[in-house]
Design brief:
Elements lengths: L1 H21 L3 H14 L4 H25 L7 H15 L6 H15 L5 E7 L4 E4 L3 E5 L2 E6 L2 E8 L6 E7 L8 E3 L6
Length: 187
C-alpha cells in the first residue's frame, strides 16, 4: 500500500511539474520536481526536468533583467551580457510564444541601444553644469547633446547656492523635453 501511495504521489507531482513547465511557471515546476526527488532521488524525469527548469529560470531572469531595466545596456559589458542572454534563449529547443516575444523585445532594445537621442540642456549662465560620465559643460545658456539610451545624472553648482541634481533616464523612441538646470536656492 505504501509503495502504491508513493507511486501515485510521484505521478501527481510529475503531471503537476509538466503542467507548470508548460505554463512557464518555473518556480512551481521546480518545487514539484524537488518534491518528487524527495520521494525517490533516482527519478530520471525529475532530475532531467530540474535541469531544464533551472536553465529556463536563468534565461528568463536574464531576459527580464534587461527588459525591466534597459538603461543597464548603457554599459558595454551589460550590452554584451544582454546579447548573450538572447543567444542562450535562442538555443531553447521549444521556444514558447512568451519566450519568443521576450527575445524579440530585447533584440529591439539591443538594436537601438547605441542610437543617440538628442537632449537639450538649458541653464541660467551662472550655474556650472556637469553631466556625469559625459563631461563638464560649464556655465551655459543652452546646449544640445547626443546621448545613448541610459541613465544620466546632471548636476548644477553655483557658489553660495544649493547644488541641484537631475536624474535623466533616456529610452529609445521616447522624446526628451529640454532640461533646465539652475541653482536658485541660497545657502
Amino acid at each position: 500500500i505504501e509503495l502504491a501511495e508513493r507511486v501515485d504521489a510521484i505521478e501527481k507531482l510529475k503531471a503537476s511539474a509538466e503542467a507548470h513547465s508548460a505554463a512557464e511557471q518555473w518556480q512551481k515546476a521546480m518545487d514539484d520536481f524537488n518534491a518528487a526527488l524527495e520521494l525517490d532521488a533516482s527519478l530520471v524525469f525529475a532530475i532531467d526536468g530540474l535541469a531544464v527548469v533551472e536553465k529556463r529560470m536563468t534565461i528568463d531572469s536574464d531576459l527580464a533583467k534587461y527588459l525591466n531595466q534597459p538603461t543597464l545596456m548603457q554599459e558595454d559589458s551589460e550590452l554584451a551580457l544582454a546579447r548573450q542572454a538572447i543567444v542562450a534563449a535562442s538555443r531553447v529547443a521549444e521556444a514558447s510564444p512568451l519566450l519568443t516575444e521576450r527575445m524579440n523585445r530585447l533584440s529591439r532594445l539591443i538594436s537601438v541601444a547605441r542610437i543617440p537621442i538628442p537632449v537639450t540642456i538649458q541653464s541660467d549662465r551662472r550655474t556650472d553644469v556637469t553631466v556625469y560620465r559625459i563631461g563638464h559643460l560649464g556655465k551655459i545658456d543652452s546646449t544640445g547633446l547626443q546621448l545613448n539610451p541610459g541613465a544620466y545624472t546632471i548636476v548644477g553648482k553655483r557658489a553660495g547656492y544649493r547644488d541641484v541634481q537631475y536624474k535623466l533616464e533616456l529610452l529609445a523612441g521616447v522624446p526628451v523635453s529640454p532640461i533646465y538646470i539652475s541653482c536658485n536656492e541660497k545657502i
